[in-house]
Amino acid sequence: MKKYLKKIFIVLGFIILVIFLDTIQALIFNNSPIIRIRIPNEGNLTFIDYGLLVDTYHCKNNKKDTVLKGFSYSCSIDADYEIIDISKNIKDFACAEALEEIYKDSDYTYYLSCIKSKYIIVDYKDKPKENIIDALKNNHITINDLDKFNIDYLKYPNEEDKLDKISMIIKEGTLTKTGATIVITDLSGKDNVYGEEFQILKNENNKWIELKPIIDNYAFNAIGYSVDSNSQLEMNVNWEWLYGSLEKGEYRLVKKVYFQEDKKNYSINVDFKID
Predict the structure, then answer these.
(1) Residues whose CB is less than 8 angstroms from the CB of residue 12 and which lie 6 or more positions away in sequence, other chains included
(2) 58-82 burial, b for 16+ CB within 10 Å, e for fewer?
(3) How confident is the model at residue 14 (pLDDT cuts 50, 70, 90)?
């Protein structure tokens, strides 16, 4: 029994020694640990080598930083400034749970996951410090710079802005109780796609209610259309087969536009009246 325990302690001691030596060599020589798991990453990193006691962060600028677990890393950037998230060095840091907008461009709005912009500072070599919102507003830094300095943020597409340059009207003289010709004008400059699918809603007591189809099983042709060289697309819409002949009232025709750049559908609509 004693010999068996002795062998166990020898093996455990050897394992501990290997882990210790692996950790020491990684820290002293800034190497990846030999005993590791390599995980690809995004932002300013290419990948991370996760060891038992240390991790090595491989930066996109061909530099790396080996640190003990629980400690922050740094991908030093050749720049005249540094973006620092002070909150990462505050123990048990907490901030108000709400998205804080920091920047907006033509396609996206960028947010911090909570109200903490005052903790993210741009430290310049030759001028006073700025918080992240002011630095972005004054074009002193870009959103891409946040990636370089490992600053976390969220981004969401500007859905309303995306549709600002897209409109849909009913071509004059084509509206009947059973259909109409619509004209879509798309000045976005994007390669957007329009299908044959549509919906019709009716205004009932100031609420838009979708009409109930007169058939149970139906489908639209899976065909995509794009605007022409004049940025316009004409489509004949016949709703009689789906909703029947419309009675007197206010209606809304809804169609979808597929944005290939973010692979999402957005809705556009036009209102009309049947007398």
Answers:
(1) none
(2) bbeeeebbbbeeeeeeebebeeebb
(3) confident
- Apex CA 154: angle with CA 148 and CA 156, to 5°? 125
pLDDT in tens, 62-81: 678 888 887 776 665 556 88
User: Tens digits of per-residue pLDDT, 247-264?
Assistant: 999 999 999 999 888 788
Nearest to 248 by CA among 205, 203, 187, 188: 203
Residues composing the chain: 275
Give the CATH number of domain 162-274; options: 3.40.720.10, 2.60.34.10, 3.30.300.130, 2.60.40.1940: 2.60.40.1940
For the segment 181-205, what is each residue's pLDDT rounded down to a tens digit? 999 999 988 899 999 999 999 999 8
Q: How far apart are CA 23 and CA 69, in angstroms?
A: 11
Question: What whole-number distance in Å separates Cα of residue 207 and Cα of residue 35?
Answer: 63
- What proportions of the chain, in percent to the nearest 5, are helix, strand and coil? 20, 40, 40
Amino acid residing at 227: V
